[in-house]
Amino acid sequence: MRRMKSLAVVTGLVATLGTPVALAKTVTVEIPVIEKDLAIDNAGNTQKMWTYAGTVPGPVVRVTQGDVVDFSMLNEKGNKQSHSMDFHAARLDVLDEFEAVRPGKTKAYEFRADYPGVFIYHCGADPMSEHIARGMYGVIIVDPEEGYSEDFPKPDREYVIVQGDLFEQGTKPQDMTANIGKKASLINGKVFHYDPVHDSNASLTLESKPGERVRIHFVNAQVNDSVAFHPIAGIWDKVWENGHPKNISYGIQTYNVAPAHAATFDLISPADRPTNNAIVDHQMKNALTGAITVLMNHDDADPALGRNGDLILR
Ligand SMILES: [Cu+2]
C-alpha cells in the first residue's frame, strides 16, 4: 500500500459481513486515470500513454484474502477517452462495474477478494487492445488469509514485474489487435528497464544476497503474446500458478504465462558466491527488444530493495 500513499489510499479497519476471517478489512483504493506523455525507455524517450495514476504499470494494490476493496476511479477531466477498470481478482458484472466512464466522471464499486494470488487489473474500454497497449494495467496481490506456510514460505525479497507491449507511435487499434506494429516489450513500463547489459542507460537492477529466496510476482500485460518466463543461470525453485499457494510446481526452467495472466516465482541463487541472473521472456523477439531483467546476487545488495514495500522499482 505504500506506493499508493499519495493517491489517498486509506486502509480502514472496518468489519465486513460474512468474511472468513475476523480481521478482514475494507481497503479503499482510489486510482485516477491520466492520459500523458511518459518515458518508455531509460533514455527518456516518451510516447503518449494512458495510465492509472500516471505510471505504467499503475500502482500495486495489495490486500489480504477476505478483504473488501472499496474502489473508485476518476477519469480526469482533461482526458479524451472513456476508461474502465477490470480487476481480475473480482467477481462482478462486466456490464455494470466494469463499464467505461467518460472524462470527468468517476466509477466506484466494491468487491471482496475471495481468491488469493496475483492478478492483473486493466482497462476494458473499447478498443481494449489499444487501452491495454497504451499502459492501462497494473497488479493486485491478494495475500492468502492463512499467511505463509511450508508450501508458501516467506520470501527474503519480493518484486513485481509486469511485461507489456510497446507499439510504434500512431499504430492503429486494429493493428494492435493483430499484433502489427509492435516494436518492443516493456518491463515495468520501460524497454530493458533493469538491464544495463543491453542498455547503458539502465541504472536499476533487481538485487539480493547470495542464497536468499527472491519472489517475483509476474504479470503478462501484453495484448497477444504469451511470455516464456525463464531465469537464465537459475531454476525457478517454486512456481505458483496464478500466485495461489495451492497451485505449486517445483524446479521449473521456463513457465508459460498467457496474456492477462500471472504467476508467482521463487528463485534461490547459490549461497557460496556472487552470481547474476538474467530473467527473460525466452521468446527471443520479446527478450531482445526489451524483456530482460538482471538480478544481481551479491553480499553488498541494497538492504532495502525488495523489502521496503515498494515492489516495483521505478
Ligand atoms: Cu482505458
Care to give the gist of this entry?
The chain is mainly β and about 325 residues long. Helices cover about 5% and strands about 40% of the residues.
Structure in words:
Helix content is 5%, strand content 40%. The chain is mostly beta strands and 314 residues long. It folds into two domains: 2-143, Cupredoxins -  blue copper proteins (Immunoglobulin-like), CATH 2.60.40; 157-297, Immunoglobulin-like. Strand 2 (26-39) and strand 3 (46-52) form a beta hairpin. The two termini are 16 Å apart. Bound molecules: copper (II) ion (CU).
Give me the oligomer status: single chain
Number of domains: 2
Radius of gyration from CA coordinates:
19 Å
CATH topology label of the largest domain? Immunoglobulin-like
**Broad CATH class of the largest domain:** Mainly Beta
Question: Fraction of residues in helices?
Answer: under 10%
Characteristic key phrases:
single chain, mainly beta, Immunoglobulin-like, 2 domains, 3 helices, globular, disordered N terminus, binds copper (II) ion
List the helices and strands and how they pair.
Elements: E1 11-12, E2 26-39, E3 46-52, E4 61-64, E5 68-75, E6 86-87, E7 106-112, E8 117-122, H1 128-133, E9 137-143, E10 157-167, H2 173-177, E11 182-187, E12 206-208, E13 213-220, E14 227-232, E15 236-241, E16 248-252, E17 255-257, E18 261-268, E19 275-281, H3 284-287, E20 292-297
Parallel strand pairs: 2-5, 4-9, 10-13, 12-20
Antiparallel strand pairs: 1-2, 2-3, 5-7, 6-8, 8-9, 10-11, 13-18, 14-17, 14-19, 15-16, 15-18, 19-20
Bound molecules: copper (II) ion.
Copper (II) ion binds next to loops.
